[in-house]
Specification:
The chain is α/β, with parallel strands linked by helices and about 240 residues long. It has 7 helices and 8 strands. Bound molecules: S-adenosylmethionine.
Amino acid sequence: MGVGPGDPDLLTVAAVRAIAAADTVAYPVAREGAEGMAATIARPWLHQHQQHLPLLLPMVEDPATLRAAWGLAADRLAAERAAGRRVVLLCEGDVSLFASASYVLLALQQRHPALEVQLIPGITSVAAAAAAGAWPLALQRQGLLLLPTPETAAELDQLLAQAASGGWVLALLKLGRRWPWVRPLLEQRGLLEQALFAMRVGWPDQQLLPATEVAVRDAPYFSLLLIRQAWPGVLP
Ligand SMILES: C[S@@+](CC[C@H](N)C(=O)[O-])C[C@H]1O[C@@H](n2cnc3c(N)ncnc32)[C@H](O)[C@@H]1O
């Protein structure tokens, strides 16, 4: 289930109800002993009697390590069900958007096809950033392209040109360490004013700033950028 981007008030009623009905609450952790982002977000909604099941999903690129972790996570969830316990898996933001929960879902479908799984959507970081910044995401015939920040300035430059000609708004996730070269490129294209920088949306230290106000330094992993290059013709 999605638990939203940070603020415990941004869990859906469905998510809170499903947590209340669970015997076991599972959540991803990047390393042994960590609390995990999703568990931190949902903490006010957890109950004393519930078992906690941290699932180790390391942030690595090695395919064998990843597959082993996803498979083990799926097996541990299936074991909970086999033991007659109701289990929920928490996921930061939405369950279907760049989510580790999606890999666990695929592993479950492959390894435990008879297991019934219900997905509960969550508020995405993009929707929360747009709302917190009072920044309409898409209007009229505009498209919205939501993707990870490209790896190079040349790729981003091409993307910005395509978005300008297609009339698309861009939502760039996984901005973090790319910000030091993204900022000068936006400046060069005269787009800094029209870009909203959103950092740690929903957390007490959240920041929503026009990109002009954000210095060139590494942005945290939990940051994203919304870029609009043109507004539609008919507006109030
Ligand atoms: C692995 S993706 C997870 C997306 C998440 N499932 C969602 O629905 O928003 C991680 C990226 O999402 C964005 N993100 C997630 N939570 C955020 C937050 N609270 N504030 C700003 N960006 C966030 C960042 O760009 C981050 O690098």
